[in-house]
Amino acid sequence: MRIKEKITDIDYGKSKQFFKNRAGKFREDNPYSVTMYQDNNEALVRERNRLEIEKLLPLLSLDKNSRVLDIACGIGRWADALPDAIEEYCGIDFSGELIEIANSRNTKENFSFLEGAANETETVLKRNGKGRYNVVLMMGILIYINDSDMASILEQVIRSCEEHARICIREPIGMAERLTLKEFFSDELKDNYNAIYRTREELMDFFRETFLKEGFCVSEEGFLFEGDELNNRKETIQYYYILER
User: Does the predicted model carry a pTM greater than 0.85?
Assistant: First the structure.
């Protein structure tokens, strides 16, 4: 189903099964398609990944003291892009299958990958003896979170941050209106897909009630890609926010 404007929940269990299926399609020669999709356009996957890293990595201002938390890390796409000379990287994902792939691909001593859903962030970090982080990545996760869970998840992110921290959020957003895909069969992915594409203003409403109330400000935001070739969806577009405290 394609549902416009109306607030509708998606089923997390079905999303988890979807990513289990995606993990089964992992290919070492085109690894990032697992979570970037575009299964029939390998060149687009590579170019989108390159440009995303090129645009957003400098905005993180990483140095040897950077402690990076990557929520919904997938197979470690962003871990591949980060320099070795940071203090720590921790990736979390609710898909055990994706975490297994991530662990098999990455052998950096100060990098780790843990299984856990976004609403279990604090529990997973505590269980594994982790502390707080000064850089948080949330790359394309909010489209899989229902409105009723957004505030509690963002509040967990805040509590996982050090006093001074930077958060990078990259999301596909609805250009004109909210769009929910619920058990929508994708010919491209050959599977049912569930996602919520919120407008920029809807996301900002959530940020105002969480991040901004806790001292964060939006220091930069904008469209991730330029040109129709990279923005090949009619109703959604990739957008990013940098929040700082």
Answer: yes
